[in-house]
Amino acid sequence: MNVKKVAPLGHRVFVKVGEQETRTEGGVFLPIAAQKRSTQGEIVDAGTAKTLKKGDRIVYSKYAGTDVELQSEEFVLLKEDDVIGLVGGDDIAQLHPCQDRLLIRMEEAQTRTSGGLLLSEGAQEKPTIGTVVAAGPGRARDEEEAPSPPAVQPGAKVLYSKYSGTEFDGRDGRKYIVIREADILAVLS
Asked: Which of 13, 68, 121, 137 is most buried, taking the most CB atoms under 10 A from its CB?
């Protein structure tokens, strides 16, 4: 099949996939099985998307979209709703969440039991408490309505659902998660 252009329909975007990590930060080459698939890219065609435009650098879920190879380059076709947020650089802490999503700095996992025993990384309980770093503009209920801003604002300490969202490692060594506002269980004070 000789395709030269892809024009997304509906509220979909066509994204040039970012570079895949082939080395560690220390410069060691990673085998193909250990390489992480990139979940960042640049929008090549925004179709009829309402909140995204051509040239935006985005982050999306690793399970979202349809992969497309075009002229020996990797692309992904995504629903506008699958875009997690906009990024300006390499630091996930600077992410601007889309729609009703929230960027949360996760609390550190407990590394010791109450009796003082060290826990292996696999035995550590995944934290479900964090601090909201950034909030998206909100989600509109229908096409005609303006989005209503999230009730949870940056700075709030929250409890969220255990298996929600997409996790990221920040350049500051901290862990972050992007979740939808509906996955917030409580605001803590």
From this structure: 13
Enter the pTM of the model: 0.78
Rg (CA), the chain: 19
Contact 77, 43 (CB under 8 A): no
- Report residue 61's pLDDT band, with 50, 70 and 90 as the boundaries: confident
Alpha helices in the chain (DSSP H): none
**Could you report the per-residue pLDDT of 75-118, keeping only the tens digit for each?**
999 999 999 999 987 788 889 999 999 999 998 766 666 676 76
